[in-house]
Amino acid sequence: MTDLKTTGQQLGRRSWAEPWKIKMVEPLFMSTPEQRRAAMEAAGYNTFLLKSEDVYIDLLTDSGTSAMSDRQWAGMMLGDEAYAGSRNFYRLEAAIQQYYGYKYIVPTHQGRGAENLISQAAIKRGQYVPGNMYFTTTRLHQELAGGIFVDVIIDEAHDSTHPHPFKGNVDLDKVQALIDRVGAANIAYISLAGTVNMAGGQPVSMANVRALRALCDQHGIRIYLDATRMVENAFFIQEREEGYADKPIAAILKEFCAYTDGAWMSAKKDNLVNIGGWLALNHEDVFEAARNMVVVYEGLHTYGGMAGRDMEALAIGIEECVEDQHIRSRIGQVRYLGELIEQWGIPIVQPIGGHAIFLDARAFYPHLAQIDFPAQTLAAELYLDGGVRAMERGIVSAGRDPETGDHRYPKLELTRLTIPRRVYTQSHMDVVAESVKAVYDRRAETRGLTMTYEPQYLRFFQCRFAPK
Ligand code: F0G
Predict the structure, then answer these.
(1) From CA 317, how far away is CA 330, in angstroms rounded?
(2) Mean pLDDT, rounded, of the chain
(3) For 3-62+324-467, CATH number?
(4) Could you say which of 83, 409, 457, 461 is catalytic?
């Protein structure tokens, strides 16, 4: 293990050591290989269908899996559970206005609730929605509202080895080409994500959003931001973009948001809560429409599906997540895991992103075709090896083309090790890295999977597989 220690020192652990200590613990259980084999078969080789109690280290997602702080738990006791006008809503509204800078706030039960509202309010049937790579739920809501998603991310984002520091950037030439082809009136809005999940948690630069704003202003096109992991994006701007090294994360976040017309949020990520979401808007017309629809789909416009106590914990989570020390430690831990895996020559998406390590399953299993589901196979193998739960982000997640019904074959075929915030320790990261290494060492013997059941929507959540 000496090499692991060296890596920790090289990283300058002191600069990212956790700015908190542990007050309450939850026991973990380690299963036997036989138990894991049985659990994996029962789950149809889909890690989404495993029972959480059968998992040792759960890196399925960073969504809703954060540990709340003592302040947030104290806030839970201050829930005002009135049906209408809860005091916690006004606290939440003020926190979003202060840290993200938008005018009007609509609360929702989680991110996809907000995606539904913005898609229904801002897309007319047949309109195009250019975005910096798709996200599963985001694109589905855009398509259900009659929109046509068009990928306008820079080409480098589709190359897992490219070291571009802002791989989430929008290619302005692609946006211009779309405007020339279909006309600005046929573009609903730009769907811009801060740190692009499916590209490996890759950031957008301030220069890029500024230039995008200028282009959109020329054509009267609005920009809506998926702010789910925008705080992590702000960290990369502070680290990599000229002129931002001395600016606090909170200031960078607010400046970035100021170039956009509104945002939707899965508060289950950056905002450090287990459930919650919001939509924030600067224009009254879209706000009116969204506030009217929220009562149909989510709940009254002062709770949107959340309990009062959830909104209080969320308001406090917003304050905590923009602290520089917090975000440095969060991304420091992700990087620590990535650098351990990298030192063994195991292929991962470069540069290491904000919320996860993405194993490049194509390069990991060069003998498997994409239709053998290499990323799904890798996720299953990781679980079988040591009880670590990962998530497929490749051909299964990409789903089928609504026009042709064929599989979409994304360039990126990835398995995501997603790190919950403030939950696992550095020794857990060491264990995960060792498990990845063990699976890598026996890669040549690994065969792929066949799909045996496929649901209609967001198939990756519920589909089933069998070994080839
Ligand atoms: N946008 C992004 C970028 C997301 O990553 C997610 C969720 C959503 C929107 C939807 O939010 O889950 O609260 O409804 N991503 C999770 C993940 C599920 O594991 O990446 P939600």
Answers:
(1) 14
(2) 96
(3) 3.90.1150.10
(4) 83
